[in-house]
Amino acid sequence: MNKFSKKFLMTIAIISAVILAATAFSTLSAGRAGVASNVANIISQPFRSLFSAVYSKTTDVIDSFVNASRYAEENEMLRATLAQMENEKSDIEAYKAENERLLALLDMQAESSELNLQGARVIGRESDNWYNTISIDKGSASGVQVNDVVLSAQGLVGTVSEVGLTWAKVREITDVESSIGAVCARTGDRGVLEGDYELALEGRCRLNYVSKDANIVVGDRIETSGSGSIYPKGVYVGYVVEISDDDNGLTLSAIIESEVEFNALSEVLVGR
Length: 272
Hints:
By secondary structure, the protein is of the alpha+beta class. It is built from three helices and twelve strands; from the N terminus they run H-H-H-E-E-E-E-E-E-E-E-E-E-E-E. It has helices at residues 3-28, 34-66, 68-111, and strands at 117-127, 132-136, 149-152, 155-163, 168-172, 179-184, 190-194, 204-211, 221-224, 236-245, 251-257, 267-271. The strands form two sheets. It has a six-stranded antiparallel barrel. A six-stranded antiparallel beta barrel has the order 6-7-8-11-10-9. A hairpin with a 4-residue loop joins strand 1 and strand 2 (132-136). Helix 1 (3-28) packs antiparallel against helix 2 (34-66). The longest helix is centred in the N-terminal third of the chain and has 44 residues, at 68-111. The protein is elongated and about 110 Å long.
């Protein structure tokens, strides 16, 4: 037995002896004047309180030791239940976000009634300073063809550049090989929307060859012009964030901000 245990037991023994002596004295003095009884109670009261506190604390320690395994098991069960509830909450939030994205795509499909669109999931991404492409889970078996238009709820994503049986690659509008006829929805001023490797990481592209006399301003909405056979007219591309004179002094160029979150795409619409 260690020194602490011996000291603890000795303290308990002394306190118990004092309480017993005080109690005996109080009993023998029962027929005497009330002063002796009061004195005995006053002397013994602190020791009785201390003994009660020590006993209560000792009982709690013993209970914790005896039931430690059960408490640990209950704690582990509570942790598991809490983790399950947090996972279920995350799943609900994910389902809600996916539902909102799909509803937005349905709205986009309704607005683009002239296009024959179908939904597809993004299954891969290839990106560097020059080329920005994504892969989708629909291919020739689903009727997807090269040059099909790809949209998200936020606007134009790009066009199909390669097709497999059950997959396809999509060249984004920020890709340096992308070139799209575009128009300012407010003024009708036209230009060519091209990918720019310095702007691609910011989700931006450049509207080039805009007439020097154009009336476009920052904030103007830019849409596809419909010129050529790939892109239909009126598909939202983005908005003007900056305008500058070209070096030749004859034309303007504008930086266009797309609202598509290219790095977070999970569902798109593809068709023609």
